[in-house]
Amino acid sequence: MQEEIKNPETVEETAEKAEDGIKKEKKKAKKSDAEIAELMEAVLAKEKEIAELNDKYLRLYAEYDNFRRRSAKEREGIYFDAKSDTVKNILPILDNMERATAFTEADKVLEGMNLILKSFNESFAKMDVKEIEALGKTFDPNVHYAVMHIEDEAYGENEVVEVLQKGYTCGDKVIRYAMVKVAN
Predict the structure, then answer these.
(1) 87-105: per-residue pLDDT in tens?
(2) pTM to 2 decimals?
(3) What are the extents of the domains in the chain?
């Protein structure tokens, strides 16, 4: 059975509404395609930015690694130079000791020992190594190491009365503290 169309305008209106719906859907699809294209462009831009940042990171990491290796090599070089300079300063002392052992006479051996002591003092002066003044000075825990204490009214308060082992500084740094006996 065929149904009768009750109202012919209703079919035309329905067709128009359907066409309008299709047009709206097409507009939405075009709008969605445009949004997708914009999002794809944004994604590509972000991927490019990520690639650039990654490249910068890799370059910076490589520069840092090179810097670290170069610094380590420089430190080793400085250490070697300092060690060789110290040995160069001590070699004349060794030479004098070897010469002193060749003598058997007591006065010649004593003369050789004095030369060795003089060489040590000259080497220390070249390296900016100085003896810490202690005897008769007031005890200073920054440069003295007290190992004995005596009570004697002949000496002042905290006065160093005997140096048991000399102390030395290199510049402002203490190499070895002076081992001392302190009064009162």
Answers:
(1) 888 898 888 888 888 888 8
(2) 0.57
(3) 11-127, 129-184
